[in-house]
Amino acid sequence: MSPGVRPVSVDADGIALSGLMSEPADGSARAVIVALHGGGVNAGYFDGQAHPDVSLLVLGARLGFTVLALDRPGYGASADRFPRGQRLTAQAATVRAAVAAFAARHAPDAGTLLLGHSFGAKVALAAAADNGVRELLGVDVSGCGRRLAVNPALIGGGAGVGLRRLHWGPLGLYPLETFQASQPVVAPVPALEVGTVACWTRLSAVILPRVRVPVRLTFAEHEAWWRHDDDEIADLTARLSQAPRVAVDRLPHAGHNISLGWTARAYHLKALAFAEECLAQAGRTAPREP
């Protein structure tokens, strides 16, 4: 773990979830960022060790946010209890409970932004539907579209050049030590997640229209799992019909595992800037004295 990052256990209505957290030095959080990792990795994805600029947890705390990177159900401490994971709706309910418990203990007066990558993006959107998270400011999504660009049979597969390309893109997009430092981050994909990804086009048609907070979508230049041409993005944003604002960003020189690459800092800064915008929109920022 990076300096200032520590392990944490969160009780989500009787389900013990592990994770990593960081806090501002003065203990006063502008907001809580709850980061949800993708399939096949754990919460350590958001505290990359290959380069000091990569960790979301370090950067977030430095800029005044409390950051919780949560091991989703089926990963970390809950892997034995949920060896097959949880279906999407169940995961969303577990995450809602975890966010409520964590915020009440660590930042009771702060709003929350959900930041989800890949499968974690689906969970974040499902958790946000119908205002399911109290004091939710917005949702930041990366590595997730509506329609797969690959054969669904590849989901949950093991190693191989083809899968490596899908997960990473060109290897030069990442610090040299990434693939050695990331070994502790890798975890098996629970079986229930595999089927959910294949069904996401259908599920998203139900979930996205129920999201009523600002949403930001980021697509890496070398994103290969999901279709993200202009027509696809137009369809995706149209489904977010109740979101008061939908922002779309394309990040050059980035692959699917966006938070581990050289552009991780750029992505994280933009995500935290989006959190600041959501704070302003919600009227939770105090005006400064002239």
Strand order of the largest sheet: 1-2-4-3-5-6-7-8
- Report the β-strand fraction as a percent range: 15-25%
Radius of gyration over all CA atoms, rounded: 17 Å
- CATH H level: which superfamily? Alpha/Beta hydrolase fold, catalytic domain
Number of contiguous helices: 9
Instruction: Summarize the amount of helix as a percent range.
Output: 25-40%
The CATH topology annotation reads as Rossmann fold
How would you explain this protein's 3D organization?
The chain has 290 residues and is an alpha/beta fold. It has a single domain, classed as Rossmann fold, CATH 3.40.50.1820. It is 32% helix and 19% strand. It has helices spanning 56-62, 88-106, 119-128, 161-168, 178-181, 191-198, 200-207, 230-239, 264-281, and strands spanning 6-12, 15-22, 32-36, 66-70, 112-117, 136-142, 215-222, 246-255. It has an eight-stranded mixed β-sheet with strand order 1-2-4-3-5-6-7-8, sandwiched between helices. Helix 1 links the parallel strand 3 (32-36) and strand 4 (66-70). Helix 2 (88-106) crosses helix 3 (119-128). The N and C termini lie far apart (40 Å).
Helix-strand blueprint:
Blueprint: E1 6-12, E2 15-22, E3 32-36, H1 56-62, E4 66-70, H2 88-106, E5 112-117, H3 119-128, E6 136-142, H4 161-168, H5 178-181, H6 191-198, H7 200-207, E7 215-222, H8 230-239, E8 246-255, H9 264-281
Parallel strand pairs: 3-4, 3-5, 5-6, 6-7, 7-8
Antiparallel strand pairs: 1-2, 2-4
